[in-house]
Every structure is written in structure tokens, then in C-alpha cells.
Amino acid sequence: MTNLILKAIDERRTTNLFDPSYALDDARIVELVRLATKAPTSFNLQNWRFIAVRTPDRKAELRAVAWDQVKITDSAVTFIVVGQMADHRTLAERLAPLVDAGIMSPPMVGGWEGAAASLYDGQPWRQRDEAVRSAIFGATTLIYAAQALGLGSAPMIGFDPEAVSRHFELGEHEIPVLLLSVGRATDENWPQKPRRPLQQVLDLV
Ligand SMILES: Cc1cc2nc3c(=O)[nH]c(=O)nc-3n(C[C@H](O)[C@H](O)[C@H](O)COP(=O)(O)O)c2cc1C
Asked: Residue 197 pLDDT > 80, yes or no?
């Protein structure tokens, strides 16, 4: 496959075993998150936050509330991918750069605010769904950014969300959606796992 994006999608697999001697400098962590934030979000809400856990002490603290998963201390960094409950009142600020750049007009911003309010205002389940959707788009984009930089990654739901929120001081409107470890994969990792037959998952209608 010659197209590098298609090749990355076709070849991705979760890394279970990381080289514990491999570190990532902060500039590369920042670059990974910069790329992750290119992911789409509803109304461009960007209702996410990425906490990069990369010091030995904080890694150990996270591992202790994440099923003791060794990946957290062996990888170079584990991102706590945080989704923020969707809130239409944040939109004016989030869309202001689009207005400044001449992409959107101020009346259009008002229209989007009204649409977002009709979707989310007073609807906590929808606010939460959007937090999870945004965080997963961000995490997925980060996975492929890491792969493009030659790094392996491991998404994880095996953690205590209340404890993670407490230890890493998440706000009341914030949800720790996913942990994502990133680092150098060792040679002993499993090959890619086969997928269900397409006829079981695809309906052409
Ligand atoms: C939402 C989510 C949560 C996961 N949680 C864990 C986890 O806590 N621990 C773990 O070892 N793997 C975890 N995985 C990895 C899956 O087991 C893995 O993605 C799956 O077996 C498919 O393998 P692949 O990613 O190599 O294609 C998780 C994956 C996803 C998408």
C-alpha cells in the first residue's frame, strides 16, 4: 500500500509491551497533542483536555488506580484523555478565532450557539455523549499521529474513573474518557488481530 495514511490505518495494532528505557521529550508530547487537536468536534467545541503523565511518580500514581497496568509505567507517556460536558456557552470563545480569520460571520456564530443550546442545554446525557465523542476523536487522532512518528500506543478503559479524577484534579464537568499510553513498542508484541468478516458489520442499503 503506497498511501501512508491508508497504510497506517491498515497496520495499526495496540502495543502491550513498551520499552521502559525509551523517553519522549516534552516537545514531542506537545506535537502529538497539537496533532490530536486537529480532530473534529461538534460545532468545533473542542471540549477536551489531554493530561500527559510522564514523570515516574505521577505514572506510579496513575498505575495504582488503573488496574496496575504495567504499560503506564513502561511507556514514555500516558495521556488521560478528558472529555468536557458540552456547553453551548463556551462556543462564542471557541468560534471567535474563526470570526477573526473571516471564516464565520458574527450572526452565524449566534446561529450555531442557538443550535448547540437546543441540543445540549439541560440535557446532561447529550452533554456527556458529546464529551465522550470528542475525547475519542482526539484519542484516535493521537494514536495515528504517534504511529506516524514511529511510536506504539495503547488505549485503556481499565481504570477507576473517580480515583483518576481525584488524583489528577479533574473538574466537575470533566470525564476521564480514556487512558492512552504512547512509547516505543518492543519486538515481542502480538501481531495485528484478525477482524470480523465485513458481511457481519457492513450493511449496504
Ligand atoms: C476503549 C478501549 C479500551 C481498552 N482498554 C484496554 C485496557 O484497559 N487494557 C488493555 O490491555 N487493552 C485495552 N484495550 C485494547 C484492546 O484490547 C485492543 O484494542 C483490542 O484487543 C483490539 O486489538 P488491536 O487494537 O491491536 O487491534 C482497549 C481498547 C479500547 C478501544
From this structure: yes
